[in-house]
From TrEMBL:
GO cellular component: apoplast
InterPro entries assigned to the protein according to its UniProt record, in alphabetical order: Cu-oxidase-like_N, Cu-oxidase_2nd, Cu-oxidase_C, Cu-oxidase_fam, Cu_oxidase_CS, Cu_oxidase_Cu_BS, Cupredoxin, CuRO_1_LCC
Source organism, top-level taxon: Eukaryota
Classification via CDD domains: CuRO_1_LCC_plant (cd13849), CuRO_2_LCC_plant (cd13875), CuRO_3_LCC_plant (cd13897)
UniProt keyword annotations, A-Z: Apoplast, Copper, Glycoprotein, Lignin degradation, Metal-binding, Oxidoreductase, Repeat, Secreted
Name the record gives this protein: Laccase
Entry EC number(s): 1.10.3.2
Protein species of origin: Anisodus acutangulus
Length: 548
């Protein structure tokens, strides 16, 4: 429901966190959902709207909801990551998220931000332009939301606890899913297929969202080209391609025209796995892009996906992305940070190493930024910062690696002897309004890998992107029309350079959106101080903020 006030509406949503019985792959289990739906309900709004979502927790799990890609101008308390901006909503409790869509429109999504519950607790957010404002491309005949996901037959909380207790790597998903459906390649799933019925000659807008947990994915439609027009809810110059790679946390809008012979065409989702020696689900999930006029007996035409380790296919699309219009990129950089991202193996501290230390070399898996593994505190960092309570975090995250070496080809790799990281709840403090450049550098300890790095509270300009070690003398930067994103796939054995202005006060999480890496510590918190003016200050916390 919604109410209008002076041109701005308020959209109200009720989210009930419930345990719902679901059958997939000949297996029935209880999963946490919102309102019994999997995927969850779509939040619809218009640019400039205020959105109010009351979350009532009727499940046995602690929960928070993150509104991924929403910049939360002056509403950091509603951002949602557990123990960063709030304590979880406990069983029987509720909390109302309130935020305004300031100069934002496009495809976003929401998901749980406690442990691994987002495996099933997720849904789309669609924000339309203001009344009378057209899309910057031909108006599509229809729009469809396509959410990529991963499904496990076992209970997610138990899987997470078992993986972290073992010190080893997570099991691959039992199925890849498109809008919650595995498709005909999977056991007992001949009827669990998502379908779009299309009219020959018409153009469709597909809002693609990767809500998967631990895996990046390729997506393609048999015999059809996809024209990218928006990435992370910001318009781009049209870029036409046969297939795209989406990491968890990324959204893409594509136009596709039904200009082929009448047939049933596969929409396919398969794995992109850039790390070495990792087990993954390689059975393709299929949905149908089927023309009116096909018969029930018509076979589907297969979609060609890249090989699972095709780094070039991932890079090609990223190389071509440009913002629709020229933009003012921050030029005079005041804070220049260099952050390595990657995996670690810690020494075994257990009396039962066979059970608890299953990483390479008999160690325990970890992940880090600048070789510091982030440990989530027992209370909300934002609350501790706002109320000036000491003991929950420190403000000494290093803006440079503790030591420089050949990150891509010469990283320490004798686990667990030289692959340890430091542990800590370290934050990095930014003055209000400071212009920040961040170089994100992949390292090869354990394995190089494409890491989808997400920053809360901001979008950023991806001004540079390349393979190998970052070298300021040879790096090519685009300061004219770089893409404006909230989740950047830092390339396998490579680097990305991002810029933003720290003009939104609060505590903002930056982390890898592969959930296992987040659990292992691949994250940091930026604390952005208040500015001078009334609209440059963190407001006081809401009265119903959950307690720890």
């Amino acid at each position: 429901m919604s109410q209008r006030r002076g041109g701005r509406s308020t959209r109200y949503y009720d989210f009930k966190v419930q345990t719902t019985s679901i059958t997939k792959l000949c297996n029935t289990k209880d999963i946490p959902t919102i309102n019994g739906m999997y995927p969850g309900p779509v939040v619809y709004a218009q640019e400039g709207d205020k959105v109010t979502v009351r979350v009532a927790n009727e499940s046995p799990y602690n929960i928070t909801i993150h509104w991924h890609g929403i910049r939360q101008r002056q509403s950091c308390w509603s951002d949602g990551p557990s123990y960063i901006t709030q304590c979880p909503i406990q069983t029987g409790q509720n909390f109302t998220y309130v935020f305004t869509l300031v100069q934002q429109k496009g495809t976003f999504f929401w998901h749980a931000h406690v442990s691994w519950l987002r495996a099933t607790v997720y849904g789309a957010i669609v924000v339309y332009p203001k009344n009378g404002v057209p899309y910057p491309f031909k108006f599509p005949y229809e729009e469809h939301i396509i959410i990529l996901g991963e499904y496990w037959m076992k209970d997610m909380v138990q899987i997470e606890q078992a993986v972290l207790a073992s010190g080893g790597s997570p099991p691959p998903a039992d199925a890849l899913t498109i809008n919650g459906q595995p498709g005909p390649n999977y056991n007992c799933s001949a009827n669990d297929i998502y379908k779009i019925d299309v009219v020959p000659g018409k153009t469709y807008l597909l809002r693609l969202i990767n809500a998967a947990l631990n895996q990046e994915h390729f997506y393609a439609i048999a015999n059809h080209r996809l024209t990218i027009v928006e990435v992370d809810a910001e318009y781009t110059k049209p870029l036409t391609t046969d297939r795209i790679m989406l990491g968890p946390g990324q959204t893409l809008n594509v136009l596709v025209t039904a200009d082929k012979p009448i047939a049933r065409y596969s929409m396919a989702m398969g794995p992109y796995q850039s790390a070495k020696n990792v087990s993954f689900q390689n059975i393709t999930s299929i949905a149908y892009f089927q023309y009116f006029g096909v018969t029930a007996n018509d076979l589907s035409l297969p979609a060609a996906l890249p090989r699972f380790d095709d780094n070039l296919a991932a890079k090609t699309v990223m190389d071509g992305l440009r913002s629709l219009n020229p933009i003012t990129v921050p030029k005079e950089i005041e804070r220049n940070l260099f952050v390595t991202i990657g995996l670690n193996v810690q020494k075994c501290q257990s009396k039962n190493p066979q059970k608890d230390c299953q990483a390479k070399g008999g160690g325990v898996m970890a992940a880090s930024m600048n070789n510091i593994s982030f440990i989530k505190p027992k209370a909300s960092i934002l609350e501790a910062y706002y109320k000036n309570i000491s003991g929950y975090f420190t403000e000494d995250f290093p803006g440079l690696p503790l030591k420089f070496y050949d990150f891509v080809n010469g990283a320490p790799n004798n686990p667990p002897n030289d692959t340890n990281s430091l542990n800590g709840t370290r934050t990095y403090v930014l003055d209000y309004g400071s212009k920040v450049q961040l170089i994100l550098q992949d390292t090869s300890t354990v394995s190089t890998e494409n890491h989808p790095i997400h920053l809360h509270g901001y979008s950023f300009y991806v001004v540079g992107y390349g393979t190998g070690n970052y070298d300021p003398d040879t790096a090519n930067f685009n300061l004219v029309d770089p893409p404006y994103m909230n989740t950047i796939g830092v390339p396998v054995g490579g680097w990305a350079a991002i810029r933003f202005v720290a003009d939104n006060p609060g505590a903002w999480f930056m982390h890898c959106h592969l959930e296992i890496h987040l659990s292992w510590g691949l994250s940091v918190v930026f604390i952005v101080k208040n500015g001078e003016g009334p609209l440059e200050r963190l407001p006081h916390p809401p009265a119903d903020l959950p307690r720890c």
